[in-house]
């Protein structure tokens, strides 16, 4: 059957296309031995299926039965009774996270959480305690010292805060920046109330410089200088703190030095695997980085800092893992954006003929802001844009893999949107997630890729290639996704299975994150709650 015919017919009623490119009306398909009409739950779902059916959509299905299973949400999803249990460590973290990360108010770009109130109260309490001094010079100095100490603690990469409370580095860095401003105000206050000492100026200078470089446009534009300045200013600050006897800040610097030592230890421990890093060009602006995963412990969605001496000894860049922890290789996909990533692409070998060189890894870092480690969430909406797919697919793989051990998952909808044809063609292999599921569980997963025709290739070319490669079970659409449909579908799936929570995992451009956050708020109603974890690849 010709493609034009297929398209015109698809406009009217729900159809799927099999691998021979034949059009199959949904009603005529049988499910095992029973016809669709005998399946009340699935008939109900037909409308839902047709909602997704527009002219540009395609289904690549190997077996009709498989396709139908894939498109329906089981009314009574299988409750898996098995040995899978979240470890005590996960439960402990999850317990704190669930309290700490509970939202109080959500805005599209920021959510105020209980943890924020807790941190704020603790800092205010410390400051009040520090002010119990007769002399104003002393009390204002103590306050500045405590705020400086807190700034340093929140700037550390490894820490008790993240271990006990699941505070992500991204969120800790927001606190780091806010506290730096508070330190500046407190130190100016101290300056007004005390004698002018040279040691005081030595501390004041780096604080002002830090603040200047951290202003977003300056930081963005002068990122490398900002990072290098950090180290110089830290050394000046330590000297100033010793000379000025800023005790609280000195303790915090001690903590920072332990953090740096721990980082060096992890870099050393990973040096065996990172001495053979493979670099391959993917498409015209993506580099695949891969290495053995032996002795590399990480969780899906985490990220590492990477340094390649051939490019620069001083630059450590963060990249989220694309692979999952059970895989033999740690894989990253890097989009060329600025000097370092472009240089990386330049030195990479062609696809299939990688360049092998030495590098260094520091990590892993990053926590999901919602506790997905345990069995709290059984419905997942994984939304990513462009190269933001890396942490999301890694997390999705991890979740689906855990199903083998009995983790109960009722639905996982994976939605990617973007313009890079290389991502659809070479990064997002359609069977990557599906291969983790057995036949019985295949209805849990739905894959939707939205490719923008403003990209470097026409969607038709990508479809053609997909068909040639006999890709299966991915719904490829033109243009931007209509998120309302996906949220509605996840909402219905949660409702049908009697669950009250849906985890939304999202990474990509800010606009995509905002849309996901707004929809999470909108669809959190009538006993169903959408908890949103968001990443924007920016500190
Ligand atoms: C947690 C996290 C995970 C990421 N994962 C991926 C990924 O999987 N794939 C991918 O392609 N990109 C990822 N990025 C983005 C990637 O780190 C930047 O694109 C890259 O560092 C840009 O470096 P550049 O010198 O080429 O560009 P530049 O032009 O120098 O930088 C562009 C922007 O990237 C940011 N940036 C630059 N250097 C750093 C750095 N050392 N640390 C933090 N931010 C920096 C700054 O905001 C800067 O303005 C991630 C970023 C973060 C924060």
UniProtKB/TrEMBL annotation:
Gene Ontology MF terms: oxidoreductase activity
Stretches assigned to coiled coil: 452-479
A Gene Ontology term for the protein's cellular component: plasma membrane
Domain Ig-like: 481-539
Transmembrane annotation, as ranges: 110-132, 144-166, 172-191, 198-215
All copies of domain FAD-binding FR-type, residue ranges: 266-371
Listed InterPro entries: FAD-bd_8, FAD-bd_FR_type, Fe_red_NAD-bd_6, FNR_nucleotide-bd, Ig-like_dom, RBOH/FRE, Riboflavin_synthase-like_b-brl
Pfam families xrefs: FAD_binding_8, NAD_binding_6
Key words, A-Z: Coiled coil, Membrane, Oxidoreductase, Transmembrane, Transmembrane helix
Protein name as catalogued: Ferric reductase-like transmembrane component family protein
Organism of origin: Tetrahymena thermophila (strain SB210)
């Amino acid at each position: 059957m010709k493609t034009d015919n297929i398209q015109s017919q698809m406009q009217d009623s729900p159809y799927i296309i099999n691998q021979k490119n034949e059009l199959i009306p949904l009603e005529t398909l049988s499910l095992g031995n029973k016809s669709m009409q005998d399946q009340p739950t699935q008939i109900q779902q037909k409308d839902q299926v047709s909602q997704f059916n527009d002219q540009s959509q395609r289904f690549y299905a190997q077996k009709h039965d498989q396709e139908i299973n894939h498109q329906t949400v089981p009314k009574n999803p299988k409750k898996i009774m098995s040995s899978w249990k979240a470890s005590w460590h996960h439960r402990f973290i999850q317990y704190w996270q669930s309290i700490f990360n509970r939202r109080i108010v959500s805005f599209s770009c920021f959510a105020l959480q209980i943890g924020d109130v807790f941190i704020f109260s603790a800092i205010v309490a410390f400051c009040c305690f520090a002010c119990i001094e007769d002399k104003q010079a002393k009390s204002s100095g103590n306050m500045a010292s405590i705020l400086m100490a807190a700034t340093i603690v929140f700037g550390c990469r490894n820490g008790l805060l993240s271990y006990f409370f699941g505070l992500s580095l991204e969120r800790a860095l927001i606190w780091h920046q806010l506290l730096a401003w508070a330190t500046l105000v407190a130190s100016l206050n101290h300056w007004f109330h005390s004698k002018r000492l040279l040691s005081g100026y030595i501390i004041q200078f780096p604080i002002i410089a830090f603040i200047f470089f951290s202003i977003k446009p300056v930081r963005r534009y002068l990122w490398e200088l900002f990072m290098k300045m950090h180290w110089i200013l830290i050394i000046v600050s330590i000297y100033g703190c010793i000379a000025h006897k800023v005790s609280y800040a000195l303790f915090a610097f001690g903590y920072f030095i332990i953090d740096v030592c721990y980082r060096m230890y992890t870099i050393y421990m990973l040096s065996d695997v990172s001495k053979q890093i493979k670099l391959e060009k993917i498409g015209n602006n993506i580099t695949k980085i891969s290495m053995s995963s032996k002795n590399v412990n990480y969780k899906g969605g985490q990220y590492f800092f990477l340094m390649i001496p051939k490019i620069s000894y001083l630059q450590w860049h963060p990249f989220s893992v694309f692979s999952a922890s059970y895989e033999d290789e740690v894989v990253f996909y890097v989009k060329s954006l600025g000097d370092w990533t472009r240089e990386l692409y330049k030195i990479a070998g062609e696809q299939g003929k990688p360049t092998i060189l030495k590098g260094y890894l520091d990590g892993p870092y990053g926590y999901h802001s919602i506790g997905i480690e345990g069995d709290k969430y059984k419905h997942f909406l994984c939304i990513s844009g462009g190269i933001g797919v890396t942490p999301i697919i890694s997390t999705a793989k991890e979740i689906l893999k855990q199903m083998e051990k009995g983790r109960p998952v009722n639905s996982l909808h994976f939605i990617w949107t973007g313009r890079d044809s290389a991502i659809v063609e070479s990064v997002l292999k359609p069977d990557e997630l599906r291969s983790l599921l057995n036949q019985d569980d295949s209805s849990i997963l739905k894959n939707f890729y939205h490719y923008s025709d403003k990209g470097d290739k026409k969607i038709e070319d990508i479809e053609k290639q997909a068909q040639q490669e006999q890709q299966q079970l991915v719904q490829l659409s033109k243009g931007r996704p209509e998120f309302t449909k996906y949220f509605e579908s996840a909402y219905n799936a949660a409702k049908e299975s009697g669950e009250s929570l849906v985890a939304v995992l999202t990474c990509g451009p800010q606009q995509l994150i905002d849309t996901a956050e707004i929809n999470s708020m909108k669809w959190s109603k009538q006993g169903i709650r959408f908890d949103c974890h968001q990443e924007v690849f920016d500190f």
